[in-house]
Design goal:
Length: 294
Amino acid sequence: MGKELAIIINPISGKREKGVVRRERVEAFLASHGLEADVWETQYAGHAPELTKAAIAEGAKRVVAVGGDGTINEVGRVVVGTGCEFGLVPMGSGNGLARHLGLPLNFHKALHLAALGASIRVDTGEANGHPFFNVMGIGFDAEVGRRFNETQARGFVSYMKEGLRAFRDYRSSRCDIASGGQLQSLRAYIVAVANSSQYGSNAFIAPDASLTDGKLNLVAITDPNFISFFVLIWRMFRKKLYLSPRVTPICSDNFVLTMPEAGFFHVDGEIFECRGEMTIKACPKSLSIVAVSC
């Protein structure tokens, strides 16, 4: 049997303390606190879920992900629904879930909380069977995510550069949104469904979203022009996105989205193909996440 604490490290995510330094700091922390843990590093894309399954099978009661939003999603989607506790050490560009929860972004403080803190029960979301914890979306933000994932550069500035490039090319398309017996049809530039309040880097797509209300917050944005594009970004960082006439917010526990053509969607920045219809639902209190200092 393995240890009750398992730590899964992505050595290349983000810009800080990458490579062997990241593992060395984790091992130094464990030694200084007299903690025993199985420590594994991801070797390739999609490795984190395999390691997480192995950790839980070997008896881990808490799995800590050290990495960016993608690593957190890969580990979390295995932990969700198992009863195992989930700790985060955010090392990515946006760190949206960690920011929403008020987790420390400092490496040592985040690791201390993730390893030694107490957990709370939070909601998660599911989009066409793919769990998400922060935000999923179709349209422009999925296109930006696809482009960003194909570049070598990381960080918020690189993400914004890909966003500006995508803005030149991307066009909105029709989307039918069914929820609670109601149907809305609109031409959407973005349809985001948020479990937490922000994409990351304090860009708030759904300022009123909660991780404990059993609901998801859909935010549909119609085609912006050049000026309104930047106004929307400004509103996002000021928590005033809902004040825009181009924005339609809907709160519900489930949605069905129908688009005329196949395309892409993202869950916490991870890109998947969509064949024209999506079913999205809230999964109340489905994850125990470490968020309280002891």
